[in-house]
Design goal:
- The complex is a heterotrimer.
- Chain A is mainly alpha-helical.
- Chain A is built from 26 helices and 6 strands.
- In chain A, helix 5 runs antiparallel to helix 6.
- Chain A is globular.
- The model of chain A has no long low-confidence stretch (mean pLDDT 89).
- In chain B, strands 2-1-3-4-5 form a 5-stranded parallel sheet, sandwiched between helices.
- By secondary structure, chain B is α/β, with parallel strands linked by helices.
- Chain B has one domain: Rossmann fold, CATH 3.40.50.
- Chain C has a single domain, classed as Alpha-Beta Plaits, CATH 3.30.70.3270.
- Chain C is built from 3 helices and 5 strands.
- The chains are: A mainly alpha, B alpha/beta, C alpha+beta.
- Chains in contact: A-B, B-C.
- Chains B and C meet through strand 5, helix 5 and strand 6 of B and strand 1 and strand 5 of C.
Chain lengths: 672, 164, 110
């Protein structure tokens, strides 16, 4: 089976290269369509390969080139990575189906499509990397190609700046990642990941801790962990919709992959504080992410903050898994690892779906501003249904996939009492409480994110004139079907994830995860349990009951259809509806100390009799991290640069003096 | 009345008889001076106590059986009045209350229709300016068939031999 | 405090109408009734002029009282003297708008 998986992945990589090559010809229709098709097929290959490798359940590695050279390439098919590979494949299929109707054959597509497919290839490279060099090269390629993906519309205002921020923070993270790998490689004496994992326990705990923290922060930059998240809400609106989908669905997941790689494979069995640190950062990201999401009116920024929130949830689960592992609760540790991976896969699916649909909305209405949208359920019926499925998934409402994975995470966190240590148990419960707050706020955020644009009446001409003709449905539709499948087929998904987790942590909890009747239990009997499959069937069935009652009991006589009772007013104008800002106002008021918004009110005149003309109300949430963390850092760096600038005087004689001084110093030091 | 009208009236009576002990009333002020509204409000007071008769006020026309209209049907309120009536499911009763609603105060001009029955069909008329809560109770009970009308047989001309 | 004791002291104040006649109804302002044998044409003209609501008017040999328009102000009672008495009727609701228009023959009638 592992060979089949390897072949599938090789085919996928080849197809993506083909897609990249064909993409160069994307100015012509034939090159464009070939690139999209090859991208999708490559995704299918990756999905199959990843699934097979995950089912296979053990790691396998192969070295190409001599193992002693730095340039040797070791490829590794690891169950943990295979989950991410499968996700990559699914996202690639969906985006590949979406591209033909979203982009057009043009010169812009002629460089965008190759770059995008190379980004897919680089991501695959990160996931199959078997030695540190290959990993780092693939990682950096993935970062640079993602940067280029964000730059698709580089002539538009703000895009270049957003892409630069993305690249800058990506590089900052990369420095930390390189440091982590370098220290680990030096102390274990090998560049091969498998050998590093085997030998890492020989390091002193100080070095191990340092490596882990470097990895957590470095990969945290890519994952969008607070406070390293500031690139996300800038880069996502700048990128095209499928680029944002790729960023949010996969690139962020690669950050999580890196953290999971270090936490569970390269340096397993770390002390509890590693897990607590991860959990703290995760819980912080979750709460901060959803709070900012509630204040955003731009659909893409809103989804970007929601990604930050979900990554927070996933990392809280992984952190808790590490804590349980440190306190000798391997079943719960494995359980939370499974829950975290499940949440990651679900997030990849529904976040990609939502970003793709945002692209459709933007193309049909011309705007991403929630306050200018409305009534899209009438104009874009199929897209609304697909978006609704994605929204129900991300808001973690039963019976969809988000509910299943969040239930698993909560059940794992609620069992913190099984750790004997009271303080740690309390901290885990606090993390659970933060996630509960997040879940509640997320439901409100997505009720707003779905209700304001799609329901009600259109608030602008663009929204009123939207039409679904020619818009991509296949890609998002596939992801919506995947959402449902991941929910109803949860036992199947959990079986596969259990094999992955068994390979990663060494504990098999299949018997304590899935019991007969398709029921899922959280690693301990008698605590709780439910069956996602039966729940889905049940909910569908009880939805049938009111229909039956209506059909059997409805009056036989003539019915009179009248408009909805609206209080008798003459007519409804769209201005009478909730705006997105007003809907989220209770949260703004409750968390005022956190948001510290600045208000700006402009009136045409001060006539109190109501004739003052339009009043403009603007409010801006204070960007805490930009103002208090990054701006001072940037100022400090600039100050240092200014301080050092006199060295670069441009005077050749001074440079000759520098050379003289360095030569003299070298002479003096050399003997030693 | 011919046979058809008689049957239709009978049907209406039967339908209205359904409301005998349980009636939901929606009030509508189509431009009155609000004294009729005060009298209607008094029906909920402990002295008159509408609820002991099974009558309730409801703000939602969807839930209402009876529409109690006061005021001379100003044109500005006409769309709202029509919408309110339309939103009520049948069978429904319309009761016009007060001199204004019965058309004796305002004549039709560009601001007002003058009487409620020129806008919507009225089933029961309750005169008075304002009708006291007891008169209103009588009107509501007539509307649901619990009391018989009296004014048909009342005589307002008295001859010597009939007075005491 | 103990506001409900006041209610217990007062007892039930709810009217028994319609099961039993309401005693306070005797004090209600009600439309007039006319002693048609005491009504002369000249008195009828003066009554029609005196009514501020226009509920009384002359139509041929009759004095027409529109109960719908009567505000029970009592002016006709002042003007009409013995010819006008208070009817005491407040249960005037009807399905038929025409039934509220009462014709009173002037000068005795049949």
């Amino acid at each position: 089976m592992i060979t089949a998986a390897a072949i599938a992945l090789a085919v996928a990589a080849a197809l993506w290269l083909v897609a990249a090559a064909a993409g160069l010809l994307a100015a012509r229709g034939i090159g464009f369509r070939t690139a999209a098709l090859a991208s999708s097929l490559g995704g299918a290959g990756a999905l199959v390969g990843g699934a097979l490798a995950a089912i296979h359940g053990t790691s396998a590695a192969r070295t190409i080139g001599s193992a002693n050279l730095v340039g040797a390439v070791t490829l590794r098919l690891d169950p943990l990575a295979s989950v991410f590979i499968a996700l990559l494949g699914l996202i690639a299929i969906a985006i590949g189906l979406y591209v033909p109707r979203y982009h057009h054959p043009s010169r812009g597509s002629a460089w965008y499509l190759p770059v995008y497919n190379l980004a897919l290839l680089a991501s695959l490279g990160v996931l199959v990397a078997g030695n540190a060099t290959f990993f780092l090269v693939a990682w950096e390629s993935m970062a640079v190609f993602s940067y280029l993906v964000v730059l698709r519309h580089h002539r538009r205002e703000g895009v270049a700046r957003a892409a630069f921020l993305f690249l800058a923070l990506s590089e900052a993270g990369f420095v930390l990642i390189v440091a982590a790998f370098a220290i680990l490689a030096t102390h274990t004496g090998t560049l091969d990941l498998g050998l590093m994992a085997a030998r890492s326990h020989t390091l002193s705990s100080g070095w191990r801790a340092g490596i882990f923290v470097l990895a957590l922060l470095g990969f945290g930059f890519k994952a969008g962990l607070v406070p390293f998240h500031v690139w996300l809400p800038e880069a996502h609106p700048a990128a095209p919709a499928d680029g944002s989908a790729f960023l949010s669905g996969l690139v962020i997941a690669l950050g999580v992959f890196g953290i999971a790689l270090f936490a569970f494979e390269l340096e397993p069995g770390g002390p509890a504080w590693w897990g607590l640190l991860t959990m703290a950062l995760g819980a912080l990201s979750a709460v901060v992410g959803v709070l900012y999401a509630l204040m955003e009116n731009d659909l893409k920024r809103f989804l970007a903050y929601s990604s930050i929130e979900n990554i927070g949830i996933i990392l809280t689960a992984l952190g808790a898994a590490m804590v349980f592992g440190a306190y000798r609760q391997p079943a719960l540790a494995t359980f939370l690892l499974i829950a975290g991976l499940y949440q990651l896969v679900n997030h990849g699916v529904y976040k990609t779906l939502l970003f793709l649909e945002t692209g459709v909305v933007e193309h049909t209405t011309g705007t991403r501003d929630m306050n200018a949208l409305g009534g899209l359920v009438h104009r874009l019926p199929s897209s609304t249904v697909i978006t609704l499925i994605g929204t129900l998934g991300i808001a973690a409402l039963p019976p969809l996939n988000g509910f299943v994975s969040e239930w698993l995470i909560f059940q794992g966190l609620f069992q913190g009492f099984r750790i004997g240590h009271d303080l740690i148990g309390i901290l885990i419960v606090i993390a659970g409480a933060s996630l509960a707050l997040t879940a509640g706020l997320a439901i409100m955020a997505f009720a707003r994110g779905f209700g304001i644009p799609f329901l009600g009446m259109p608030r602008s001409r663009g929204a009123a004139n939207a039409s679904e003709r020619g818009q991509p449905l296949a890609g998002p539709g596939l992801l919506a079907a995947a959402c449902v499948a991941l929910a109803v087929g949860a036992p199947l998904v959990l079986t596969v994830l259990d094999r992955v987790a068994r390979a990663t942590t060494g504990t098999d909890i299949k018997a304590r995860l899935l019991v007969p009747n398709l029921t899922v239990i959280p690693a301990h009997t008698g605590f709780s349990g439910f069956s996602p499959t039966y729940l889905a069937v049940f909910l569908v069935c009880i939805a049938v009951v009111p229909v039956l009652i209506y059909l059997s009991g409805r009056p036989r006589g003539a019915t009179r259809t009248v408009p909805v009772w609206d209080g008798g007013i003459l007519s409804f104008t769209p201005r009478m509806q909730y705006t997105a800002t007003a809907y989220a106002n209770p949260i703004r008021v409750t968390f005022d100390e956190f948001y510290r918004p600045e208000f700006h009110v402009e009136r045409a005149s001060d006539d109190p009799a109501g004739r003052s003309g339009p009043v403009h109300y603007r409010f801006r949430v204070m960007p805490i991290f930009q103002r208090f963390l990054y701006a001072p850092l940037v100022r400090a760096v600039e100050w240092c640069a200014d301080f050092v600038r006199p060295i670069q005087s441009g005077d050749v004689n001074l440079y000759l003096l520098y050379i003289l001084i360095c030569v003299i110093i070298a002479y003096l030091i050399y003997p030693y | 009345m011919n046979e058809e009208q008689r049957l239709s009236t009978q049907l209406q009576e039967r339908a209205f008889a359904l409301f005998r002990r349980s009636l939901h009333i929606r009030t509508f002020d189509s431009g009155s001076c609000a004294v009729c509204e005060s009298e209607i409000r008094l029906l909920s007071s402990p002295y008159y106590d509408l609820h002991r008769l099974g009558f309730f006020f409801t703000p939602a026309p969807r839930h209402a059986d009876l529409l109690l209209v006061s005021g001379p049907a100003v044109r500005a309120a006409e769309p709202a009045l029509r919408k309110t009536l339309e939103a009520m499911p049948e069978p429904r009763i319309v009761v016009a209350v007060g001199a204004c609603a019965l058309g004796t105060v305002f004549t039709e001009d560009e601001l007002v229709h003058g009487s409620v029955d020129s806008v919507i069909p009225v089933d029961v008329y309750v005169p008075g300016c304002p009708p006291s809560p007891l008169a209103l109770l009588h009107g509501l009970l007539v509307a649901v068939g619990r009391l018989e009308e009296k004014v048909q047989i009342l005589r307002f001309d008295l001859r010597e031999e009939l007075t005491g | 405090m103990f506001w409900f004791l006041r209610g217990i002291r007062r007892g039930v104040v709810t009217t028994r109408y319609p099961a039993r006649p309401e005693p306070s109804a005797a004090q209600l302002p009600t439309p007039p009734a006319f002693r048609s044998d005491r009504l002369t044409v000249e008195l009828a003209e003066r009554l029609a002029e005196a009514c501020p609501a226009g509920a009384l008017r002359r139509d041929g040999p009759d004095l027409v009282l529109d109960l719908a328009g009567c505000t029970c102000c009592g002016r006709c009672s002042e003007v009409g003297g013995e010819a006008v008495v208070v009817s005491g009727e407040f249960e005037l609701a009807t399905r038929d708008r025409g039934a509220l228009v009462k014709r009173i023959p002037v000068g005795g009638g049949r």
